[in-house]
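Hello Y.,

Per our agreement to keep a running log of every chain we model this quarter, I'm adding this entry. I've kept the format consistent with earlier entries: sequence first, then predicted structure.
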Amino acid sequence: MGYIAPEALRGDYSPASDLWSVGVILYVLMTGDMPFGPEVFDHCPSDLRCEGAQMQSHWEKLRDSKVDWACEPWPAFPQARSLCEQLLAFDPGERSPSARAALAHPWLRG
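Predicted structure for the entry above:
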């Protein structure tokens, strides 16, 4: 559940949804932790249907959650943080517009 983009929980899946998942993976690789705490994933939903009540509840928890950008190692890697923030934008329209654009980010171009 921790890798599913918020809009996918509502049945709206797009390439931006994959970029969310990449953002989660980047966050885990950089910190060793998931970007969202256990309060977001406090239960295993029994109803996995998109647009179901449990998925709506999960969507709301993600919407209201805040990622800890102050934890290590983000202060030492501001460009990595910038990319990860773009990938984890809650609104898919605010995410990096494509994988190509994400790969062109200054942190990856080094």
